[in-house]
């Protein structure tokens, strides 16, 4: 019987892609207004800074998600003052938070699981600070018992260290632990390798064929009936 359910955050508990699009547009407008960067040029400049960040950090750590450092690198490459970096970071995240809303059925799913006596955890590739802010804004944080971030474990999904710490905090055997996420590569494969029960959250109709059979849900409120 499943005792603990661990959830990915971005594109699982809320639609990151949609919120990111709004935030990135705000960032693009800031770059046009304050830095003189043409909107059509900004995505390539942003990607170049991200590539530099991944190269410098080695790629398999939470620092690759640090937007403050990413924007610092972008500004340095442009020869612009770095005082813009914290302003850009706050603009991005505050805009994303305003645009974010829980995935369909997310809150009812979490509430059902808690009422059934299950431990709830979070497993996310990201720095801890903004993930806590997101969960507070989404109204979900009080429902969770523990969190594992790649910042804490210095390993990104689907790494063995990451999922090992998830199981340590789950306080149950791997067979009694489910991991719910949107990424086949990171969430599903990582959970399978760790011996957990993977659940693939994929709300779109079209879906690639997984290498191994896996429970797939299109709404999070399907989870209680199909997993427990």
Q: Classify the beta-strand content into a percent band.
A: 5-15%
- CATH architecture designation of the largest domain: 3-Layer(aba) Sandwich
- Report how far apart the termini are: 7 Å
Order of helices and strands: EHHHHHEHEHHEHEEH
CATH C-level of the largest domain: Alpha Beta
- For the record, the count of structural domains works out to 2
Q: How does the major sheet shape up? A: 6 strands, parallel
The SS-based structural class is: alpha/beta
Shape: elongated
| Low-confidence residue ranges | none
| Individual helix count | 10
Structure explained in plain terms:
Keywords: Hydrolase, Magnesium, Metal-binding. This is HAD-IA family hydrolase. It holds the Pfam family Hydrolase. GO terms for molecular function: metal ion binding; phosphatase activity. InterPro entries: HAD-like_hydrolase, HAD-like_sf, HAD-SF_hydro_IA, HAD_sf. The model has no long low-confidence stretch (mean pLDDT 97). Helix 1 runs antiparallel to helix 4 (84-99), helix 2 (42-57) crosses helix 3 and helix 3 (67-78) crosses helix 4. This protein has a six-stranded parallel beta sheet with strand order 3-2-1-4-5-6. By secondary structure, the chain is of the alpha/beta class. The protein contains ten helices and six strands. The protein has two domains: 4-14 and 102-227, HAD superfamily/HAD-like (Rossmann fold), CATH 3.40.50.1000; 17-99. The protein is elongated and about 55 Å long.
